[in-house]
Amino acid sequence: MREEFLHYIWQFQKFDKTELKTAAGELLHIYHPGTHNLDSGPDFFTSKIKIGDQLWAGNVEIHLKSSDWYAHHHETDSAYDNVILHVVWYHDTDIFRKDESLIPSLELKGKIDPEIHQNYLELFSKENEWINCEKYFPNFDDFDIESWLTRLYFERLEEKTKLIFDLLKQSKNDWEATLFKLLVKNFGLNKNGDSFLALANSIDYEVIRKLSNDRFQLEAVLLGKAGLLDEDVEENYFKSLKNEYEFLQKKFSLGLPIETKPVFFRLRPDNFPTIRLAQLAAVFSRSASVFSVVSKAKSKNEIYDIFSAEVSEFWTTHYNFRSNHKPKPKRLSKSFIDLLIINTIVPLQYAFAKSNHIAEESYLDLITEVGLEKNSVVKNFYQLKPKLSKNAMHSQSLLQLKRSYCDVNRCLKCALGAKFIKGKY
């Protein structure tokens, strides 16, 4: 038995309420269970109940057994002084407030709908299964799954906008600067994302604006601030970049390179930080107002066009400054741009619309144009339910479902898990 299950039972009143009595034998009537509190303090606020002839308004605390009150030291915590009812699975002792007045208790054992209780036990008794409802997932209604995945996608967008609004605040509400920081971070992918973000934060975007018509100077600033021009290399292009960076460093008071340099280890050459920063320089040398274009884009082809910039000639034969190879284009691949759409463009469009109270949801058209992401989580869900829609919105939703619900046993907060518990799947 999990305490979370009792929260669910109390919140939705899924128990027999006929002739309810407290552990002391007083008649109990519930007018309102209260508002579920997800932070510290009592589990439900502003509940309304009647005990005997007395009407009470206050908080409700829930435990598996009454003695947990003392195990959690609530008797010494003033946050629990206004608890009017202690709801438990099993009542094993009376509990008292600091003034030694008795707190009424309600025992739920024997009062919960047997079907709901059995479904709960069935759901959480699984071992060595990928998700708790793995056996039942194929039977969930298609409409219920699609509706829940849509809600999960917006939940995921909300999580991603937290970083965006933090960056916007740091950038003094400059959306162009915010996009620059977010793009730089995501160009670094998982391996170099943090160091790339530190790089972006270390450069005043006004410098990027002033250099936006010069790809070479942008390269010099990005590579120099990343600490990738610190060594002595006998390569003419490297020396030119280093000299240019030292000049620009003094001109714009750029300061020292970032402390944690980007890494090359275990990266495919196309993801080397030198290549990704050269590509960024190419993108921002085409326009200093990338956001003004990106924010209005409604199709992935528009995004592909924005990010189709060519790197400088040197990088067509190099991945680093120490060795060369046969000429090869280093344009951003469509699969990489799709990742930018998923992790940068659409979240930014959503954040901008939210910030400016724009009702249009063209970002949904954009995300559904992008194909399904390929990873083990998405693959496993589609093996369970092959008929799910196949686009990036759904793969993002499935990642949210797995990591924020399935992996942490939040089945009772999941629309599908709740359906199963009720026996309505």
From TrEMBL:
This is DUF2851 domain-containing protein. It comes from the Bacteria. Pfam families: DUF2851.
